[in-house]
Amino acid sequence: MVVRDSDGPPTEGFFMRRRAVLTTALVSVSAIAAAVSVAVAAGPVMPVAGVVTWCLSPAAAQHLAADGVVVSAGAPAVLDSSGPTPCVQWPMRGDISLDVSEGAWTADGEVTFTRASDGQSLRLTQAHGDLARRTMSVDAAVGREAAQPVVLSTYEIDMRDITVTMPSLESPGAVEGRPFNTMLTPDAATVFTRAFSAPPVPSGSSLATVSGRVDVVPALG
């Protein structure tokens, strides 16, 4: 459809005005897209709450099972054994940026590994993550020893595995991540070795996958 000036044919001035309007519209759309991109890439750290799902990798689960080590979870963390490997769902809260490049989170509950043959155990509590450093840390207690802080794993994130819902009138905003690998650190491998004579996987290999969803906690008032 061609829009005409009054009842006559389109004029040169009409086309110049139309080009100017289209150019302005394109510039405006580009500016909005850039603003949204910047907001996601460098957006503020926001309070969030949700659930992190931590699933042993097939190699780690196979090694632990062969050694007679079983996995259990302490409330409010929940063990899910319905999948191919044991998973633990951790309720979590924190302050993060929507592009998951900044901020930190903490999770409640515990995960315990226990060997049936001798009762030897390893208990992990106070799970927390540092998004800038790409680490997940815990307090680890071997047997009856006092718990000691340790960086459990490191990871990299492919942003294609992250879905961001920008804040709007319909939603305060959310971040959802598909499972990605987390790599056992040398210090954590040492802790597992003290508990069970060997780590479930070599350091630098995938101990578990992590996925989850968090929602922005709306400000009160």
Strand order of the largest sheet: 1-4-5-7-8-9-11-12
Low-confidence segments: 1-7, 20-42
Which range does the strand content fall in? Answer: 35-45%
Shape: elongated
State the helix count. 3
Helix-strand pattern, N to C? HEHEEEEEEEEEEHE
Q: What's the alpha carbon Rg, rounded to whole Å? A: 25 Å
E-strand count: 12
Fraction of residues in H or I helices: 10-25%
From the N-terminal CA to the C-terminal CA, the straight-line distance is: 50 Å
Main sheet summary = 8 strands, antiparallel, barrel
Instruction: Average the pLDDT over all residues and give the rounded result.
Output: 85
Q: What structural class is derived from the secondary structure elements?
A: alpha+beta
Could you name the key traits of this structure?
eight-stranded antiparallel β-barrel; disordered N terminus; single chain; alpha+beta
Describe the structure.
The chain has 221 residues and is α+β, with helices and mostly antiparallel strands. Helices cover 23% and strands 42% of the residues. The protein has three helices and twelve strands, in the order H-E-H-E-E-E-E-E-E-E-E-E-E-H-E. An eight-stranded antiparallel beta barrel has the order 1-4-5-7-8-9-11-12. The chain is elongated.
Question: What is the gist of this entry?
Answer:
The protein is an alpha+beta fold and 221 residues long. It has three helices and twelve strands. An eight-stranded antiparallel β-barrel has the order 1-4-5-7-8-9-11-12.
